[in-house]
Amino acid sequence: MLTLRPPTLHDEAALRAMHEQLAAEDFTFLLAQGTWSEILAQVRREADGRDLPADRVRADFLVAEADGVPVGRVSIRHELTPFLREVGGHVGYAVAPPFRRRGHATEILRQSVERLRGLGVERVLVTCDDANAASAATIESCGGVLEDVRVPPGGGVPRRRYWIDG
Predict the structure, then answer these.
(1) Angle at 99 between CA 98 and CA 103, to 5 degrees
(2) Domains annotated on the chain, with CATH
(3) Cβ atoms < 10 Å from Cβ of 55
(4) What is the b/e burial string over 70-81, where b = at least 16 CB atoms within 10 angstroms of the residue's CB?
(5) Could you tell me where the beta strands, DSSP code E, fall in the chain?
(6) What SS3 state is found at 34?
(7) DSSP one-letter code for 89
(8) pLDDT tens, 112-163?
(9) In this structure, how many other beta carbons lie within 10 angstroms of the beta carbon of residue 92?
(10) Among 116, 166, 160, CA closest to 138
């Protein structure tokens, strides 16, 4: 069984290791820098929507845990900035390489969409790199309908943009 929960002091080693593993894939796993206490404080501020920089929105950074073991993470954004509407979407998730191909990504996305619906978000935007067939399949299995593929402002990797309706 997979659960989504806030990170704790005990997660530092596992989450920093996942950050290093996913850095090799050009994916930023931890969305903050500093000591672990500083990272946890930022996670709490973003979850509460307190003291956010102008380019950030209220968001829940949650650990995906299966059978007591962290396997990935999700960032659930409560609203969209212009950048998130183009590139990032409402949900950003990752599963560490040792835990892939077990259905974790699908369950992370399913629970994230359910959480957003509970917050009143009726249409959930989820994006992935155009070449990421596994992520595209995950999004489609959760009801995602492809709107288009866009190159981010300023260039970069084309992104597939999917909408999941309530």
Answers:
(1) 150
(2) 2-165 (3.40.630.30)
(3) 9
(4) bbbbbbbbbeee
(5) 2-5, 59-66, 69-77, 91-95, 123-129, 145-150, 159-165
(6) coil
(7) B
(8) 999 999 999 999 999 999 999 999 999 999 999 999 999 988 888 999 999 9
(9) 23
(10) 160
